[in-house]
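ok trying this again, last paste got cut off
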Amino acid sequence: MNLTYNDINHEYKLDGMTIPSVTQVLKGAGLVNLDFVNEQLLEEKADLGKKVHLTTELYDNGTLDLDELHPTLKAYLDQWIKFRKDFNFIPTEIELQLFHKLYRYAGRIDRVGLAQGVLTELDIKSGMKFKHHAIQNAGYELLYNQGKKRGEQVKKRMTVYLSTDGYKVEPHNNENDKNVFLSALTISNYLLRSTK
């Protein structure tokens, strides 16, 4: 099976057929609503988020040119490096793109790796904390763990919120988050079909 992602349309295709992303599932079910945020500000924050993600990705892959890095991005990167040191985080998967064979959705997992010796799935954010982040994270955990033996599955999941002057870690321990995500997937698929 061939999974592709179109960055312009923000859409995944599996063998040419469009399938929803984790984020689209949450939006489609009504769990994400940013209508209260100014559109220009939202675009600026999204652009910053993409740049922070790329910066941390290049750093973790060992291909980042630090001399060419903008001071603002350097400040975010410093916090990512501090997190990695504090949690002894060693990434094993970076920006991993997957689809779920049973549930028919896709997503890009920011990182999977060992955090304090425990296999952990984590999401990197450079903006505000929202409730739906735990549900988003659960969608990624389901993606990663599918078909794996228990010993190969992630045991923890978390969101790391980076800023220019620090970082915060939000662990996601509620097992019910996965059920909420699957319910959101059902609702999103139903609403999508009912509009066709």
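PB: full thing came through this time. The helical segments are 22-28, 39-61, 71-86, 132-145, 176-194.
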